[in-house]
Amino acid sequence: MDHRGDMGTLRFPNDDEVDGFWGQDRIHAPRPLSPLAFDLITDTLALGFTRAHAEYGAPIDMFTRSVNNYLYSSMRPVADPAEAARRAELYADLPRLLDEVGERWENEWKPELIRSVRANRVRDYRGLTNAELAAELERQRADMIDQWTIHGRINFGVVAGARFVDFYQATFEPDDPSEGYQLLQGFVTQTVRATQEMWRLSRRIRAAAPLRALFERPTSEITAALAAPDIGPEIAAFADDFRAFLDEYG
Prior knowledge:
Oligomer: single chain
Structural class: mainly alpha
Distance between the termini: 35 Å
Strand content: 5-15%
Number of helices: 10
Largest sheet: 3 strands, antiparallel
Number of strands: 3
Order of helices and strands: EHEEHHHHHHHHH
């Protein structure tokens, strides 16, 4: 049963409507979701992760549901014995699969993600008919499943990290159990770059009185002000850099 309801009705599922353990998923959706957001973003999350698990041999599948417009998720062992056996055999080959992740990300997955995101951003949806919009929603659902599948594949990198730490612990027996993990940090990722750029933008806001005054206003007013044609040169320069940041990092 679907428990999305409407924003004014609260209802939790009965005991006979809950199968297994479900936890509120505050990582992927800490705030309430509209039904459309659930269909497009978080329902596809479970489908994509489960597809990746099947490809890499993980013995669990992911499920999501909306309860009072909050996202709940559950991980369950694969029920079919034949599929569980297939995945167990595949999981034994995980080291080889993990060796391919970096190359596939750079040469296959990342270029396709960039192409898809750019195409979606420039498309004009205002002239589409209702039937065309419905078809577009289904296309974007399929696209989101593909994106979550890539995310699910990359998640298996934590297995390589965990195996390294197990090796480090057994070989060197460090006093600090986190020592092995410390050896894995320090790589400059896209997330690190985005955070660094956001920090630089924030320092510019703090250093300039016009920008500080602007960012004390409601978000909707800030967005409109940055797009206005008659803003001062200091805010205009910041607006250009902010748009460049969004173009690069989303």
